[in-house]
Design the sequence.
């Protein structure tokens, strides 16, 4: 009995003390020694870290077949079946982990914001702290290269594309009406309040097959996944009032905010170039609800916005000013679910619905239009391995548009269209190594209204040339339904989709807070809509014979390290673009294109003043316009454009901020273009009027106050 | 009978030896850490965590060692690696134990290291989260000296910036020092660190 007991202890202890040596060397794919690798026998404590020369050696008490693990963050964990008695001086070769932070990323054409350490061109706060942006996401993006400054419009014009060639997506789901309503030559702004989003990706070309119905660009906005704590936010501004509240529960949270904007006080103080009968007013509200499931997150986003204004616009064709009265009601609803299931599967799905109603009185005519748009989408993604990721999905877009024009003479014209587009897409990301990656995708769509199908391939490649730099190439075919100004007349003409192809060569360098991006591109347009009348009307003679091109170079430089407390970026764009579309008699450069654009954005933090001071200077060279007094089409050139904006955020205390901003500090008299009379005057000359900003300057003063149990949060991000 | 006794003896012995193996392993890892061999210590804890799925401590120390090392490093790439490693280890345990105050403190420290990494980008994004984590930890373990001390230290940074009074935080640090004296760790390897740093911070208060 005793003997057995002692024997058993003896057995166990001997088994503990019979040790075998395991040794070898760890190298990477290039044969270089790797130090600091944790090498051990799975399920035991036996192991060691590899030394400077990659060598490791340790004793183990295990016997027989075991699994040897070699783990180090930037490499894929290697598991080898070994026979303990026979594992000395063996070489372990580690494969690069392509998901590591220093791996190549496919970046051609994309500016990203977000991420804690990755190269971020725009940081989340930039949207609101860029002078001149006044909290408008779109205005902040206009300081990036590849965009055109079209002050009389306010929308995004990307690389020779019209504004409607950019589509906006919230959580992957399309926003049918991303901009506020506006009248001709009165700039609009983005509908979304920037503080609801924490990731923004702006692609100026060559984007993923997941997105369609955009010839030039996609803007992807992702709402925040989580909020920090309960809080109430109050803003008092020279242009209106805002109120917001956030509630957080265990698994869910709700944010609601509302604002009332009235430009009357501003218009009273600052001399206006436009004659306002009733100032711009808007009442808007947004709400986001988030619910966290064990394996996913559900988000519901809804926004309502009602705005109106009434102006007398000078019109070169009439001796009296023309009165424009606009009422817009907009509702947008978006719900999305993102989650994981099974083994390495990810699901993203969502629905959006947008309703926009305009009531416009132009002089004595009444125009009422309504657009109802919906988007259904699902996408699944599967990681086949660490190196291959597949995704595929489907889209369904529904658009119903109706317009009634009742003219003073009593005639009523009703037009409209229903468009249904179904699309499927598939894409895969392939990492050949940590240095070389490719993204290959296709998109296939069928458009009911146009009775056509299209197949669009997309491909991009990225190669890391050195530790801090990489080169990318991208190619893609893109198609888009002609905009509603045309297809509302599809009763009279069978339109076809407009098409574009993008070719992009991108170089990116990034090191210690400095980023350089240089991108050369060529875009070919075809199938653009043409018509033969001075303006678009039902009896215009339409065809799809238009074409054009855009080529250019975009350069971006950002530096936040060289000078203490200063962040700045410089964007330069060169573009050469011509088109023969619309009612152009010949191929010419459209009036929204300036050949050279330069933006400089600076932000300087003065600790002792508790202030951030920012300047933004935007410059662009002359834009073309057509002067009917001259023989050659689009022969006129405006003068160059310049705008220097300034802002100052003063933190009164942790929860109170005073904010001041002014645009066009220098009072530059900018001219965007000229409107010419339809008919010549008695001397045979076409008169003209200059298209200028509604006011030379915009002033803004605001006070932002956050009430929460947590004393550290403030609304700096709202500004 | 002999069979049963043998089995019991065998079972008890294996339990005993397993127990001592854990203690031995943890002891060795602490020794390495004490010698300043951070990555070896972290690797040792990592090996223990791979073998002992039931204890949260090995992963806790992997996270703590790497986070502390990140604060002492200037090389941005290295910080990135250390914090990624810390976060990965912590995530393992947070899923199992979302209401463990010691884990919450380390999570707050990781976020604080990210704020130091790039204040412009991460300050606004994470400082709220840090405060939330400390508030949660304090609700769970109001008498834990590390919770009180780390929270006060984070608040002092902000108070200095605003030029507001740091007295309330200093009082909290003093309170933490008192609690360190009476704090009873649950096991021999449970966290006990923090007194030396709190003493330095308290000296800076004066």
Sequence:
């Amino acid at each position: 009995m005793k003997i057995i007991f002692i024997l058993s202890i003896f057995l166990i202890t001997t088994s503990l003390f019979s040790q075998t040596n395991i040794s070898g060397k760890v190298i990477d794919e290039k044969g270089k020694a790797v130090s600091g690798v944790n090498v051990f026998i799975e399920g035991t404590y036996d192991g060691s870290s590899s030394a400077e020369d990659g060598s490791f050696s340790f004793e183990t008490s295990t016997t027989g077949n075991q699994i040897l693990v070699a783990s180090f963050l930037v490499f894929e964990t290697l598991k080898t079946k070994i026979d303990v008695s026979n594992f000395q001086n063996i070489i372990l070769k580690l494969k690069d982990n392509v998901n590591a932070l220093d791996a190549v990323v496919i970046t051609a054409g994309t500016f990203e914001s977000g991420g804690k350490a990755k190269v971020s061109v725009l940081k989340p706060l930039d949207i609101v702290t860029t002078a001149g942006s006044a909290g408008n996401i779109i205005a902040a993006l206009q300081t990036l290269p590849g965009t055109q400054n079209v002050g009389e419009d306010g929308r995004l014009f990307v690389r020779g594309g019209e504004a409607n060639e950019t589509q906006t997506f919230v959580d992957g789901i399309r926003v049918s009406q991303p901009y506020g309503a506006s009248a001709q030559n009165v700039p609009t702004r983005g509908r979304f309040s920037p503080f609801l989003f924490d990731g923004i990706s702006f692609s100026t070309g060559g984007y993923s097959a997941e997105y369609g119905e955009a010839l030039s660009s996609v803007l992807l906005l992702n709402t925040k996944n989580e909020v920090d704590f309960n809080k109430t936010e109050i803003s008092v501004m020279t242009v209106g009032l805002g109120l917001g509240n956030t509630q957080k529960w265990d698994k869910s949270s709700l944010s609601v905010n509302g604002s009332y904007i009235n430009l009357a006080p501003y218009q009273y103080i600052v001399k206006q170039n436009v004659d306002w009968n009733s100032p711009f007013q808007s009442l808007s509200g947004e709400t986001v609800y988030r619910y966290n499931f064990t394996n996913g997150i559900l988000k519901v986003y809804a926004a309502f916005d009602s705005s109106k204004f009434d102006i007398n616009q000078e019109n070169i064709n009439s001796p009296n000013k023309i009165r424009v009265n606009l009422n817009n009601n907009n509702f947008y609803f978006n719900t999305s679910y993102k989650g994981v299931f099974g083994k390495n599967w990810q699901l993203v799905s969502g629905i959006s619905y947008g309703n926009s109603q305009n009531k416009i009185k132009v002089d004595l005519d009444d125009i009422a239009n309504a657009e109802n748009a919906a988007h259904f989408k699902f996408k699944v993604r599967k990681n086949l391995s660490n190196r291959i990721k597949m995704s595929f999905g489907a889209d369904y877009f529904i658009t119903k548009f109706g317009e009634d024009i009742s003219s003073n003479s009593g005639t009523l014209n009703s037009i409209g269209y229903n468009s249904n587009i179904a699309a499927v897409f598939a894409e895969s990301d392939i990492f050949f190594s940590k240095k070389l990656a490719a993204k290959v995708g296709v998109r296939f769509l069928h458009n009911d209204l146009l009775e056509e199908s299209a197949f669009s391939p997309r491909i991009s490649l990225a190669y890391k040339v050195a530790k801090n730099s990489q080169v990318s190439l991208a190619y893609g075919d893109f198609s888009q339904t002609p905009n509603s100004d045309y297809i509302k007349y599809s009763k009279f003409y069978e339109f076809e989709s407009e098409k574009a192809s993008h070719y992009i060569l991108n170089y990116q360098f990034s090191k210690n807070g400095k980023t350089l991006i240089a991108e050369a591109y060529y875009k070919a347009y075809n199938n653009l809509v043409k018509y033969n009348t001075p303006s678009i009307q039902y009896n215009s003679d339409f065809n799809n014979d238009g074409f054009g091109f855009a080529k250019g170079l975009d350069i971006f430089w950002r530096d936040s390290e060289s000078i203490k407390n200063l962040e700045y970026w410089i964007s330069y764009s060169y573009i050469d673009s011509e088109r023969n579309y619309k009612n152009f008699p010949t191929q010419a450069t459209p009036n929204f294109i300036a050949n050279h654009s330069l933006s400089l954005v600076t932000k300087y933090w003065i600790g002792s003043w508790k202030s951030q001071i920012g300047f933004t200077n935007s410059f662009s060279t002359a834009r073309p316009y057509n002067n009917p007094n001259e023989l050659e089409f689009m022969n006129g050139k405006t003068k160059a454009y310049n705008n220097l904006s300034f802002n100052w955020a003063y933190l009164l205390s942790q929860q109170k901020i005073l904010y001041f901003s002014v645009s066009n500090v220098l009072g530059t008299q900018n001219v965007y273009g000229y409107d010419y009379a339809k008919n010549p005057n008695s001397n045979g000359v076409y008169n003209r009027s200059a298209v200028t900003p509604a006011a030379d300057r915009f002033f803004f003063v605001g006070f932002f106050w956050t009430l929460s149990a947590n004393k550290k949060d403030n609304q700096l991000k709202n500004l | 009978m002999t069979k049963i006794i043998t089995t019991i003896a065998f079972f008890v012995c294996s339990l005993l030896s397993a127990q001592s193996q854990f203690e031995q392993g943890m002891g060795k890892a602490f020794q390495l850490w004490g010698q300043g061999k951070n990555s070896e210590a972290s690797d040792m804890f990592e090996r223990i965590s791979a073998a002992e799925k039931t204890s949260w401590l090995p992963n806790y120390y992997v996270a703590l060692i790497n986070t502390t090392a990140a604060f002492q490093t200037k090389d941005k790439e290295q910080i990135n690696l250390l914090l990624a490693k810390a976060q990965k280890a912590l995530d393992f345990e947070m899923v199992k134990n979302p209401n463990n105050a010691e884990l919450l403190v380390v999570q707050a420290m990781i976020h604080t290291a990210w704020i130091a990494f790039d204040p412009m980008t991460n300050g606004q994004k994470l400082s709220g989260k840090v405060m939330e984590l400390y508030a949660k930890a304090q609700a769970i373990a109001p008498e834990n000296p590390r919770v009180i001390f780390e929270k006060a230290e984070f608040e002092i940074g902000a108070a200095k910036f605003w030029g507001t009074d740091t007295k309330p935080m200093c009082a909290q640090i003093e309170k933490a020092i008192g609690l360190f004296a009476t704090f009873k760790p649950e096991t021999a390897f449970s966290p006990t660190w923090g007194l030396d740093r709190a003493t330095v911070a308290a000296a800076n208060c004066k």
